[in-house]
C-alpha cells in the first residue's frame, strides 16, 4: 500500500514517519517508533490501555488515525519523566500508593490522570472518576489509583 | 509489628517504577529477529464433522510462510484428561476449536490468509445445557476418551464425592432445614494484557517459549510432552516469562495456541508469535465454569448446624482443563466452612458443546460459597435467628479438625465476623431498613474459607529458591514462583531482606525463567506468599548461617552473639567487633582463609497430604477465613443495586506488605462485586455473544466501591513471619453478601448470578404480585 509521510511531535521531538493511511496512532507509536509504553488492550477504544495525550487531550491511540496526528504534539508515557529522568509526580504517586499491580493499564491510567491534572489542578474525586472512566483495570479495584491521583494533585499544588 | 525492618512495611512494588515508566516488556512488546506472526482459524460451527479444509488460497497470500492443520502436523494432545488436541481433526466440538493456523511475516498477512481458509462441515447434533447433556438420548460430545475407549454418555468420569459423618442422622437432629437451588454462569478473567507467546527453536531443535504462564515449571513439562509427540523427545525446553498483564487463573493451564505456535515455529524454523486480540481473549481462553447447585442444610433449636448436603452439575464445555477439578476445592467450604459435623458433597461435570472451563480466582469456591452463604441466611430466617448470630454460633475455631480432616491452627473467623458487624452497625441496621420507599436499604454478610498455606492438589506443592550474594551485599534470589502483578517479587524481597538484615533494595528477585529458576508448581491456590515465601525464607536462613559462621571465625566471636542487621554483622556483646557486611563478604571471597562465596538452595515442600480417594486429609498447612459485609440500596423501580458500604475483613496471618495486601483485597472485592452484579458471558448455541468490554461489563472506576479492608493478624506459626495467602479470598464472599443484603432491603431472594437489574426488578415484581 502507498505510504504517506507525516510529521508530528512526540515527547518534544519532531518525527517523520511513512505510514499507511489506515494506520492508527498506536500502530505508529508502537511499531514504527518503538514506544511500547502505550498498550493495545482491546483495539476498540473500550479499555484505555493505549491512552496517550494529543495536544493536551487524552485519546485512545488505538482509534486515533495516524494521519490526524499531523502537526500535533503527542505525549506518551515515555515522555512523562523529567529531563533528569526523574518521575512525574503522578508516576511517583502511583508507585508509592500501590496503584500498580500487573501494570498493563498503568501507562494509560497515568496519562488520563495527567490530562486531567493539567486541565483541573484541584480535581474532586468525581472529576478523577470521570477522567479515568475509560481506563479499565482488573487488578486494583481502582481504590489506590484514586488515592494516587489525589496525592499527585496535592504534590503538584505544593 | 515491632521489631521488623522490612516485613510489615508498605513498600512499593519492586517493579512499579518500571511499570509507571512504560518500560516493562509484556509479550505484546517483545520481538525477535526474523519473527513471524501466527494466527488461528477457529471453527464456524459448534458441532460438526470436518469434511474438507482448503488452504490453497491462504498459501498464496504474500508473506505467508506456513499453513498448518491437523492433517499435516503431528497430533499434540493436552489438558487434564488429554481430551483436547492443538489442531482438530475430523470433528469440531465448540466454536473455539482450532482448525488451522498460519505463520506470516506480518500480522495483516496472517489475518488475510486465515480469512481465505475454506472449511466444509457436516453439522452434527449439539448440546448446550449440561442437564440436557446428561439425558440418555443426548448427542455425545466425545465418542471416545483420549485412549480411544468408547464413551456412553457426556458425564465425565471424575469421582467428586465427599461424605463425612452421618447426613441422615444430622437431618434427624435438625429442627430447621433450608433448601435451595442456585445458579452461577460463565465469567472470564479479563486480563488487561491478552494472552500470547513466542515459540522459537534453536538449530538443535531445543525449544524456547516466551510466555506469560502462571505455571512455568508445569508448562515446561507440557511442552516437553509436545516435543515428544513431534518426534523430538529428549530435546530441551526453556520457558521464559515476559511481564504478565494479569493472571487470575487464566494462565494455569497450557492452551492450544501455545502448541500451535510451537508447531509453526518448528515448521518455519523461525520464531513465531501468537498474541490474542480482545475478541479471542474472550472466546478462546477458558472461563470460570457455570454451576447449578442444590443445597440443604439444617440446624438444631439453638442454631447449631447439624448437616449440609450439596449436589451440583457443572458445565465442563467440550474439553477438560482444570475447571473440571474445581469441585475438589469446593469441597473445602462445603465441608468445613462453619462447624457442621455431617456433610455430603457431590459434583458432576458434563461435556457440552460450550466453551471449556478452567480455573479462575477462587477455584470453584465463589460458586459454592454463593450457595452455602445465601442458604445459610434462609436457614437463619427459618430458625428465627439473626444471620450474624447464626454464623457466630457456628464459626470455626482454632484447634478443631474439620469433617474433611483439615487441621485448623490459627483461625480468625469470629474476629472477622465481629469486625464486619461492628463496622456496619449490624444490630442497628439489619432487618430495619427496607421500608416502602422507592430506594430501600439493607445489609448482608457472608464468610469464606480458603487454603492459606498452599494446597496439595498436585503430587508436589513445593517451591525452590536459589540465593547468591555478591562481594558488596547485593543479593539475587531466584524463585520458582512468578509475579503476576500480585507482588510476589516484593514479598520475597521483604522476607529475604528481613532475614539478612539488608535494605530491601539490595535484594533482587528473579522469576520466570526455567533455565535459571528452580521448580515450583505454579501461582495458584493463593500459595505464593506462603510457599514461595517459606522457600525463600529457608534459603535466606542458610545464607545467614553461612555468613555468621564465617564472621564468627573472622571476628573471633561465637556465632550465637552475632546477627545480621542494617547491612552489618552486629556483635551485641562487643560493639567494637561489629563490621559492615560487605567487608565480611569480600574477606570470605578473597582472603586465603575464605576463598568462598555465599550461595544457598532450598526446596520447601509443605507437610500436607495430597487429596485423593475419600478427599479427606490436611491438604494445606493453614487455612484462612474472611467475612464481607455490605450495605446496599436497591432501586425498586429499576432493579439497580447500589453498594453504599463494603467491609472486607480477612484473617491474613500477618501482612508482609499491608499496602500490596490491601491491593489484593480491593481488586478481588471489585471482581467479586462484578461477579455478583454485572458480569456474564452470554452464550447462544455455543457462540459467545458479548466478546468485548462494551457488552461484557467489568466494573470501571465510576463503579468502584469504597471497600474497607480489615486486616486481622493471627500470626500463623507455619507461615513465613506468620503470613497466610490472600490472593483469592477477597472475591469469594462478595456475591452472597450482596444477595443477602438485597434480601434484607427488598425481601427477594436472588438465586442466580449475576444479579443484574432486570433480574432484581423481575424478582421484586413477582414478590409484589404474590402479596
Give a written overview of the molecule.
- The complex is a heterodimer of chains A (158) and B (771).
- Helices cover 33% and strands 16% of the residues of chain A.
- With 158 residues, chain A is of the alpha+beta class.
- Chain A has a five-stranded mixed sheet, with helices on both faces.
- Chain A has two domains: 4-79, Ubiquitin-like (UB roll) (Roll); 89-157, [2Fe-2S]-binding domain (DNA polymerase, domain 1), CATH 1.10.150.
- Chain A has helices spanning 25-32, 89-96, 106-119, 125-131, 143-157, and strands at 4-10, 13-19, 51-54, 57-60, 73-75.
- In chain A, strand 1 (4-10) and strand 2 form a beta hairpin.
- The longest helix of chain A has 15 residues, at 143-157.
- Chain A is built from five helices and five strands.
- Chain B has 771 residues and is an alpha+beta fold.
- Chain B has three domains: 16-23 and 462-604, Aldehyde oxidase/xanthine dehydrogenase, molybdopterin binding domain (Aldehyde Oxidoreductase, domain 4, 2-Layer Sandwich), CATH 3.30.365.10; 33-124 and 197-244 and 251-284, Aldehyde Oxidoreductase, domain 3, CATH 3.90.1170; 291-455 and 612-770, Aldehyde Oxidoreductase, domain 4 (2-Layer Sandwich).
- Chain B is built from 19 helices and 30 strands.
- In chain B, strand 4 (77-78) and strand 5 (84-85) form a beta hairpin.
- In chain B, helix 9 packs parallel to helix 10 and helix 15 (528-555) packs across helix 16 (581-590).
Give keywords:
heterodimer, A: 158 residues, alpha+beta, five-stranded mixed β-sheet, 33% helix, globular, B: alpha+beta, Aldehyde Oxidoreductase, domain 4, Aldehyde Oxidoreductase, domain 3
